[in-house]
Specification:
single chain; membrane; transmembrane helix; transmembrane; alpha+beta; 1 helix; 2 domains; Immunoglobulin-like; 34% strand
């Protein structure tokens, strides 16, 4: 009788240990499944979000004026619309190793949407006199910031800085171009992404 009670106790303990092991295994499986599902959700969010890039479009002479400005193209390469697309584009001359291209976030975003694969062209807010090209060689920087919100209503930003060498003039800036179109002074193909001022999230 005593032997039977002893083995019954041992059996009960083994059953209890087996139950604990099963519970531990179930918990570990649930945690792993939860992590996998979260990774999948994060991956889908990245794949489905809007993603705005900025493409250089050269330096152009304004129609009918003796001034020039930089041009960019804003392109949504993501799979969903970019909402509240706000752009700030500036231009300045500086040395090759210029570093000061910081831009402040927008306080208020624009009511403008860029659909997937849609493009939008924009020129710099400021201009420069054509006489700049008669001065000593140097570099023109077109830089700025694009802020927008994605489909998760998360605010995103893209900062950019394109460098142009003034020595790569495509046409004479003093040449009179047709009034119907701007004159390309430096082609987009000569632009370089500067080591500073380029970032996207």
């Amino acid at each position: 009788m005593a032997d039977w009670a002893f083995w019954a106790m041992i059996g009960g303990m083994l059953t209890m240990l087996g139950s604990f092991a099963a519970l531990y295994f179930i918990r570990a499986t649930l945690l792993a499944t939860k992590e996998t599902l979260q990774e999948e959700r994060d991956r889908n969010a990245i794949e489905m979000r809007a993603y705005v890039v900025v493409i250089p479009q050269g330096i152009e002479k304004d129609i009918g004026k003796s001034e020039y400005r930089g041009q960019i193209e804003i392109h949504n390469i993501g799979k969903t619309p970019a909402h509240n697309v706000s752009a700030r584009v500036w231009m300045k001359q500086s040395k090759f190793d210029a570093v000061d291209f910081e831009t402040e976030p927008f306080q208020t975003l624009a009511d403008r949407t860029l659909l997937p694969d849609a493009r939008m062209r924009q020129g710099t807010k400021n201009t420069g006199p054509i006489s700049d090209f008669a001065k000593k060689p140097g570099f023109i920087f077109v830089f700025g910031r694009i802020d927008y919100t994605d489909y998760l209503m998360k605010r995103r930003s893209t900062t950019f800085c394109h460098r142009y060498n003034k020595a790569t003039l495509a046409t004479d800036p003093n040449e009179i171009a047709p009034l119907a179109e701007p004159q390309v002074l430096i082609r987009a193909a000569t632009a370089r992404h500067h080591i500073h001022g380029n970032r996207a999230d």
